[in-house]
């Protein structure tokens, strides 16, 4: 075995035993040796095994993806590692490489200047290229040796040690806990419910009153009930015993909230009254949810009066980073509608891809919706995040887009379920996919209309936050505004085809690479011509110009918090009439006051807290949990713990796990002077880590895993923005009791429902301690979980010993105790205790 030491900031990770044309491909294996090897380095080992019958010469290349941008090799390493694009690397032999004999291997020790925070930070998406033929890459089956040792320093105090998880589980699932709940204890919780002891039996079917021809405005509610009941085996037929009446109030008795409704369930009769079409649809959703939580579809008689605190209850879905086809998106829409989320911010373009067909600009999808093995991106984008290197493989989440017809179908589907869709066109930063596509247009079709949306004179090598070069639009170029107008014109037509009107477009507006406009000759000329004193004024110029362009089409704008920050009162007064909403996400550190400053300046603020509502953050710092960590961790309790009218009390622990005194967190910080400008909440699901499998396994289960059960907290806080426990933040007991009830509601009611509806979800892990008598204690987050354990270091399965009572360890010698929870056909991550 030949061994060489390489010092890398990146890792290679592959395990491949595929066959191709009768020849076995080389095998690669990656193992984490030490996550803290000193001086901020992690230590891993890559072993390449030549499984072929011939020596493995130097005509191979190995491509892979990883969240990293820096590489360093020592002078003796026989391999070169080259950054092709952000996170996309090529490994290939150099002049020191000696062919690996058949059956032999090459091992290299690898050092990367970062900590592997969890599974999402490991290399993935590897593919081989032989003889320089990048048109025919071969997928590598990526198998990574487990990260056995807990990454305690990765999350600081936040790492979920076995003892910490045990203590937490005790607070949310005490022994003997039970949840006594009515059929109407649903998410989000209705404001006023009065239940009596009688029931309305739906098992023999229902009849929706349409005798006089149901007005069109009632149809969505009627259709929602009909679809749901028929899916559950409840017949909807004329003459059925139970009558459902639908009505829209016109007398003002329900107040001013357009989404208010009442619901009355009496023996054999159900009456739903809404303050508007939206209110009536809310009533229909409450009815369906109550039926789902009833016993054998015998619904408790009750009177309900309800309305949301926020009329904007949103969710942002990113399909740019990793694509999801129409059917998968519809499943998410169904889930959002069920929990009364009424807005979908549709993030379909970013640096990594463009995912909606624009017929006037076919390159946007012909180039921008395809990722694969390339060095120059002349025909498609580089294989960022993960994939097998084939830009035409539509089983990979790297590739794909929605046609205009599919987009129109999605809009109609969402509208029918009470969800409006706001398209997001990321500009002026995060525009790399569009820029690469338009460069290809110029090169491939020079006779057609040119959209030069980049500065051809600029030679900037500056990188964005995500590490991309050349991803900022040239805001000085008229082509940029023509480009956006062309895209928006197409979107308007797609909406019209769906019978809808496009009245809001989200423009992104965030994370323009620092210094890029200073290095743009065109922008510098614009600044001189328009008298713009700095690049902040350039940003104002862009926002103002694009908002005026869209206003001519009857469209207002939304954007991330940057579009509303640090402007003069005069600028705000001119811009605000065209602004429908601003997503304020920064609830970390010194930027935590941004949210209320925006609201106080008059901006309609959508609370998009990274610490509460970024669903791409991992559930915990456990090494097996997928997701990112720059905002810490976000679980179902973080979402539920948000306090919209005291944003500072929404963060209960810092990124490193340090507790926050929420009762005093607002002291000395910007107060909320204009609460009317907090218009709603929104969850965000960025999909950098949510890739499909090597051989095309859908990423839909991964997406659903990140949503559930976090979505319950988002839905609850969007509907009920003033929880009772938040009235006195110093009353810790009230918070803990409410949290315990919330957790039991999730575990005993909502997750079983999600299982019946066919959704994937996360199961919380068990805790482990050894008591003073030397007994092994294990607990779970929900009643009736199956808890298994091992003492020999093996991975617990359902066939492992079951913990149900204290287990004396006596003098048993064990270096690690492992436990897992099994519940509703799902299993948790493995908790490890080192005695």
Can you describe what's shown?
The protein contains 17 helices and 34 strands. Helix 6 packs across helix 8 (478-497). A hairpin with a 2-residue loop joins strand 7 and strand 8 (88-93). It is an alpha/beta fold and 835 residues long. It folds into 4 domains: 2-149, Immunoglobulin-like (Sandwich); 192-306, Chitobiase/beta-hexosaminidase domain 2-like (Chitobiase, domain 2), CATH 3.30.379; 313-364 and 402-427 and 473-508 and 536-732, Alpha-Beta Barrel (TIM Barrel), CATH 3.20.20; 763-833, Immunoglobulins (Immunoglobulin-like), CATH 2.60.40.
Question: Gist?
Answer:
By secondary structure, the protein is an alpha/beta fold. It has 17 helices and 34 strands. An eight-stranded parallel barrel has the order 18-19-22-23-24-25-26-27, surrounded by six helices.
The number of helices is: 17
Distance between the termini: 37 Å
Main sheet: strands, sense, barrel = 8 strands, parallel, barrel
Please, what is the CATH homologous superfamily of the largest domain?
Glycosidases
- At CATH level 2, the architecture of the largest domain is Alpha-Beta Barrel
Mean pLDDT: 91
How many domains is the backbone divided into? Answer: 4
Number of strands: 34
Percent of sequence in beta strands? 15-25%
- Overall morphology: globular
Structural class: alpha/beta
Q: Major sheet: order of its strands?
A: 18-19-22-23-24-25-26-27
What is the CATH class name of the largest domain?
A: Alpha Beta
Helix share, percent: 10-25%
Do you know the CATH topology of the largest domain?
TIM Barrel
Low-confidence segments, ≥5 residues, pLDDT <50? 1-22
